[in-house]
Amino acid sequence: MSKRTSLIRIAAAIIGALALQAAAGVQAQEKVTVLSNWYAQAEHGGFYQAVAKGIYKKYGMDVTIKMGGPQVNNMQILVAGQADFSMGYDFTVLKGIEQGLPLVTVGTSFQSDLQGMMTHTDVPNLGALKDKTILVAGSGQSSWWPWLKAKYGYTDAQSKAYTFNLQPFFADPNTVQQAYPSSEPFQVEKSGAKANFFLFAQEGYPPYGTTIITLQKTVATKPDLVKRFVKATAEGWKSYLEDPSAANALIKKDNKEMGDEQLAYALKKLKELKVVTGGDAARQGIGIMTDERWKKTYDTMVSTGLLKADVDWHKAYTTQFVKDMHVMP
User: Fold this and answer.
1) What average pLDDT does this structure show over 128-133?
2) CA–CA distance, 71 with 92 (Å, rounded to integer)
């Protein structure tokens, strides 16, 4: 065999080996489905960024985001095994534990919930709503409304149903309503009007926001998958805050109603409120959760009658995937 022939065969063998490695890498991409907790928006930016920038793929996952909405029961879909992860909410998981559902929170996007109150400009703070009509959606009745009533002495007689229509707010200067900082205030500004917004978290409302939920059996049988997904999502959030363009393109593709101006406004609010990078995240990294915060949420639910005191609240979450992750802002 000539030296030239030998070199050709060696080169061919190397190329073949590299091809097999590449094929194996493709095959190793584990398919993962995650449910969003609403229509695609900036509040989901870290997840979409991790898809758009190949961060999930870097960690061996082929992730599909399925868009949620008001008619989608995320926990039901998750428990049925039709998704691997869901964006969620502390209250939902704790209530699920009470009902025997095998849910567990493995990380979070935001260090505080984004729920708050939008008022007319004459209202100076959340304690000044005693003579106001307060619009509360059905989900609020089983989460923040009992907390707000207990904290400030408000009554159910003040509340009316919020139907995600701003006309009652515009029509009555004595009406206030639940809102997200990136949504309803934006609509008010676009109409040329003015409003105040008060974030509940700044008054002590304890839940995290847009958490990552999975099943207890997934944590038990696929801990490496959970670890990779949580870390990749945290890296997605860090990347999104730096340059959201890649994620925003996917968000607009999923949600045709979402425009650039709304996305830019929402990102500005996320940064101003430091919900991704502030609090414990500033010291311990994006996605961090603590026992102390979960205990406060449990105590809040029990004290307002939303949860039985004998519920094992430790089952609602685990810090094993975030405590040493250290994706620093």
Assistant:
1) 97
2) 16
